[in-house]
Design brief:
Length: 303
């Protein structure tokens, strides 16, 4: 999975730069789950609302649009689908062909968001919201992380075999709810009520988010040691702190918040599928982060 778009510099020699930047096309494939598809970010491709939720506001779509605006020729295939798991990428899912079938030998970049469905992160979040996720539920999801990491390592090896020259960008999920107290004097979503997320649920829930991030990071490092060209791009700088694009923008922090809360349950909205997912601003921030971290996606003339 590849992410985030930064500001473009002013072109002082537009004709020469445009000729260089468009000299070769970039073959980009976006694959993975709801965070990659942009569930919660609106503006869904026809036929995907209520199923895969492929948003034109997803970070991969935003990055591709920026590359094209900079003069780069980009072939873009988006097979992301809400609810996808590592094991379903090689299977027909929601009447869609296997996502892995989108990979070709000439694929240049693969943007991949995957892992939460494998550990039932959404189900865990639901327990936090509706009941109490401290204790046994937290231990249960943490126990699933090592298996997910091993499966991701195998997936990355499979992607390399199918697309041997591709740069694989794996993206993280970030911190959905602030670890601390609610921000004062800022309009907050009802999900921030202490009856929904208690102080201890925020602590343990954030420990799960951090552990998920560490698992993804270690799996990509293991794959890199096996000569897979993979890079992990995360809203976290480490297991606690966030990248500047995301710092202060978890739910219940200073506005604007980058994740959907109970606003997703309002009439005409996506419903539970979008709760705790990145909104349009969050997807744009992820695009910015990816472009800052991954030169080939930065809108430059690099091949």
């Amino acid at each position: 999975m590849v992410l985030v778009i930064g500001a473009l510099g002013v072109l002082t020699a537009p004709v020469a730069v445009a000729a260089t930047s468009s000299s070769a096309s970039l073959n980009v494939v976006a694959m993975g789950d709801s965070y990659g598809s942009g569930t919660g970010a609106g503006n869904y491709r026809p036929g995907t609302e209520g199923t895969c939720y492929r948003s034109e506001n997803s970070y991969s779509s935003v990055i591709v649009d920026t590359l094209r605006q900079s003069g780069k020729q980009v072939q873009f295939t988006n097979v992301t689908c809400s609810g996808a798991a590592i094991k379903t990428l090689g299977q027909t899912f929601k009447d869609q062909p296997p996502q892995l079938d989108a990979l070709r030998r000439d694929t240049d970049v693969v943007m991949l968001s995957i892992g939460t469905t494998d550990v039932d992160f959404a189900g865990y979040g639901g327990v936090c919201i509706q009941a109490d996720c401290t204790g046994a539920p937290t231990k249960a999801i943490l126990s699933r992380l090592p298996g997910m990491g091993k499966a991701l390592n195998s997936l990355l090896t499979d992607i390399k075999a199918r697309s041997p020259h591709a740069k694989i960008v794996v993206t993280g999920y970030g911190q959905q709810v602030t670890r601390g107290e609610n921000a004062a004097n800022v309009p907050l979503d009802p999900i921030c009520d202490s009856q929904v997320f208690s102080d201890e649920e925020r602590v343990q829930g954030n420990n799960v988010s951090s552990a998920l991030d560490v698992t993804l990071r270690l799996a990509t490092l293991a794959a890199k040691a096996q000569r897979v060209d993979v890079q992990f791009v995360s809203p976290y700088t480490n297991s606690v702190n966030l990248q500047p694009e995301f710092a202060g923008h978890s739910l219940c922090e200073s506005a604007p918040q980058f994740y959907r809360g109970f606003d997703a349950l309002a009439p005409g909205q996506e419903g539970p599928d979008a709760v705790l997912h990145l909104n349009q601003q969050g997807q744009a921030a992820m695009a910015d982060l990816i472009q800052r971290k991954v030169p080939v996606l930065a809108g430059s003339a690099q091949p």
